[in-house]
Amino acid sequence: MKTSNLIPAILFVLMISCISGISSYAANPAVASSDRIQKMIKEAVKYPEKAYKNSCCGTVDIVFTINDDGQINIKKMSTDNKEIADGVKDQLSKVCCKGIKSPYNQHYKVSFTFKLV
After folding, report:
1. Domain chopping of the chain, boundaries
2. What confidence tens digit (pLDDT) does each residue in 38-62 have?
3. What is the CATH number assigned to the segment(s) 34-114?
4. What is the 3-state secondary structure (H, E, C) of 24-93?
């Protein structure tokens, strides 16, 4: 009789420990290499040629994710100059982050400021 009560109790404890283990893993995903991603993007994006020729200045703030193929998916973009934003968006479409591991659906933010001196 005691054995029949013990088996469900053991199964219950095992089930709870598995659920809590999975939950704690999901709450703390692997740390993304955001510094490396920002450095790669900042090196790839240059002053947009058209904006430079037209003497445009401005700031572009971009929130993005990286998909499994290493492509950048822009989620949000704010700017004070559309011409600069279009140039940055075009350059980002050509950047490939294939060798970089990042957690699924991790959002990154990067800011660009372009000024003529």
Report:
1. 1-30, 34-114
2. 888 888 999 999 989 999 999 999 9
3. 3.30.2420
4. HHHHCCCCCCHHHHHHHHHHHCCCCHHHHHCCCCEEEEEEEEECCCCEEEEEEEEECCHHHHHHHHHHHC
